[in-house]
Amino acid sequence: MNRLEVREAITQAHHEEWARVVAALTRRFGDLDIAEEAAAEAFATAVERWPADGVPPNPGAWLTTTANRKAIDRIRRENKRGDKQKEAQTLYDDEPPEPLGAIDDERLRLIFTCCHPALATETRVALTLRMVGGLTVPEIARAFLVQETTMGQRITRAKAKIKAARIPYRVPSTEDLPARVSGVLAVLFLVFNEGYLATGPDTDPVRHDLTAEAIRLTRLVRALMPEDGEVAGLLALMLLTEARRTARVSPSGELVSLDEQDRGAWDAALIAEGHRLVRERLAAGEAPGRYQILAAINAVHTSAREARDTDWSQVVALYDQLVRLDPSPIIVLNRAVAVAELDGPEVALAVVDRLEDRLAGYHAYHATRADLLRRLGRSQKSRAAYDQAIELAGNTAETAYLTRRRDQLA
């Protein structure tokens, strides 16, 4: 195996095994800092040793074993510097296991720990992206539109709070699940979005490892709460979005917009499963939540044989319903895209322009505005808007798409 193949194997192992290694160490040592640092050291050791020794038959087991040794070494060093006898004793004593939650899954335990209500919502998301998704601090900072130092401090404080407050590392009991699950769903949704259109300029534009992990964990949450409409809605939304993944980026690495995608390349099985979940929720007769409405919007899109067959009046009606639940500027922006198809770009542009103060730093705002101006024949203003979108976009495929659209202007 040459060095390039080894490097690719390490990258794949990081995508597939990071969360498992961190979760296993958190379970054993009860400390996110130790788990994260030891996991990082294990991967660094792999970078040093695998080119010479070869990729082990079971990379995950090798990394977990190496990380465990790194953690033990760290605790022994700290034990020499201070009174750490009780902590060090956990290396040798077999303590009775804690009661398991409804599902015994290490990564699900890790998510519920990172999503504990004692932490602020944005901190839960950031911590989960770091500890479960394995994203770097710069990648997470870009997702939150904040400075790297700010994000690093936020994650550090979150881990310290978990340790100081003795937040348990477990899946909540059945009685506590309803109150805790909404925060977990919000985190899983952002993890999925980061995978579906990655923000890092040096990462793959679509990270299947993150989308697959978000879907897997959402399936587990659905097994915990099969009657919860929002859990089913989020799973349906992810499946209907994931179904279009392979058609999302061209062979040359450029983003392909929904209206230009090869619908024959969509995953029919995922679409069928997503549609079934949407129909089940409609048949339940309950008022839908945010994820159920988003899933229904995606069901309309994936039901159309061609882009021109899309029922835009239904899409706008669903967005009207969603805006009543979540009047965030991003939802209003997405609704404006549908309004442009139904009522024309002039009407939509008036809506978009009112969002400038709230979305000036958001690349999709400028990209949407650029497209509407292009359709109205205002090439100079459209070009300026494309320039702003390109400057703010972090995804390589999206940047390539926006650049081509800008360069096509007269």
From TrEMBL:
User: Which intervals of the chain are annotated as region Disordered?
Assistant: 77-99
Q: Which Pfam families match?
A: DUF6596, Sigma70_r2, Sigma70_r4_2
Keyword set includes Mitochondrion: no
Start and end residues of each RNA polymerase sigma factor 70 region 4 type domain: 111-162
Alphabetized InterPro entries for the sequence: DUF6596, RNA_pol_sigma-70_dom, RNA_pol_sigma70_r2, RNA_pol_sigma70_r4_t2, RNA_pol_sigma_r2, RNA_pol_sigma_r3/r4-like, TPR-like_helical_dom_sf, WH-like_DNA-bd_sf
Domain DUF6596, which positions? 180-280
Q: Which residues form the RNA polymerase sigma-70 region domain?
A: 20-80
Q: Spell out the Gene3D superfamilies in the cross-references.
A: 1.10.1740.10, Tetratricopeptide repeat domain (1.25.40.10), Winged helix-like DNA-binding domain superfamily/Winged helix DNA-binding domain (1.10.10.10)
- What protein am I looking at? RNA polymerase sigma factor
Q: Does the keyword Transcription regulation apply?
A: yes
Please provide the record's keywords in A-Z order. Sigma factor, Transcription, Transcription regulation
Which spans does this entry mark as compositional bias, Basic and acidic residues?
A: 77-87
Please report which protein family the annotation says this sequence is part of: Belongs to the sigma-70 factor family. ECF subfamily.
Specify the taxonomic lineage. Answer: Bacteria, Bacillati, Actinomycetota, Actinomycetes, Propionibacteriales
